[in-house]
Amino acid sequence: MDIEGKEMWLDIAIEWALAPLQYAYMQHAILTSAMVGALCGMLSVLLILKGWSLIGDALSHAVVPGVAIAYACNFPFAVGAAITGGLAAVAMALLKQITHLKQDAIIGLVFSTFFAAGLFIISLVPTSININSIIFGNILAITQADMIQIAVTTVIAALLISLKWRDLMLVFFDEGQASSMGLPVRRYQWLFYCLLSASVLAGLKSVGAILVVAMVVTPGATAYLLCKNFRNTMLLSTVIGFTTSLFGAWLSYHTDTTTGPLIVVMQTGCFILAFLFSPYQGLIGRRLSFSLRRQQVISS
């Protein structure tokens, strides 16, 4: 192939890659998805470390009645989602303190109750509520106000985690030791609840109430398989959330598919690759590492 032919194919590839950026709604969708992915990736590691993955599921379902009421009353859905998400977090914390129920039973009770309440509200006023926007999200309807809100939330969460990541790691890894060292364990847990609720709220527009739980679990699970150090795990989880969300939104334009499911499929693909080829915990990678070490021992 001559030089002119290579330049022609290069121009075609660049034009194809930049095609989504010609439209303002796609610019908003790509940027917002990337911010939401990074935010969820940061918090995902703490969820995995504590074994609280189901809490993300509970909060993602708990915001449904708040969003439904907001749609019905024609006021910003973020307000309603924040209120019911906060109520769900308070309900789980109080039930944990005053009852002897196990954590999974409390989570199942809270998220099913709130989700049922949301569907009941939707059934009362079905014409004024877009149920698909609540459950599956609508990234193409992102407004500039939504972008500012998500950007502010992401920056605040990043600052808090970067300043307090050592304390958060200790609180989530060994609550007893953290308490004995004088750390305000309950305060840090409430801080995490607030940040998680904010990330769920941010993810509603991009992937909806159903799939947002995947965005706050999958990146952390993937990074956990690939890293041994907590700090590196959090950084990698953030990168995975950011890149898969960015490229998922970009690729959805070319494939003419829904953005949210494509992002989650890409994150799941990353997890499968890590599960298979991670040198530490991968199904295949661990065996290859063992074989290489064995050969080195034999050859030496």
Properties at a glance:
mainly alpha; ABC transporter involved in vitamin B12 uptake, BtuC; 300 residues; 0% strand
Report on the structure:
By secondary structure, this protein is mostly helical. It has a single domain, classed as ABC transporter involved in vitamin B12 uptake, BtuC (Orthogonal Bundle). The protein has 13 helices and no strands.
Low-confidence stretches: none
Ends: how far apart? 49 Å
Provide the gyration radius in Å: 22 Å
How many beta-strand elements? 0
Order of helices and strands: HHHHHHHHHHHHH
The level of helicity is: over 70%
At the first level of CATH, the class is Mainly Alpha
Count of folded domains: 1
Please describe the biggest sheet, giving its number of strands, its sense, and whether it closes into a barrel: none
What's the quaternary structure here? single chain
CATH superfamily: ABC transporter involved in vitamin B12 uptake, BtuC
Strand content: under 5%
* Average predicted local confidence, pLDDT: 80
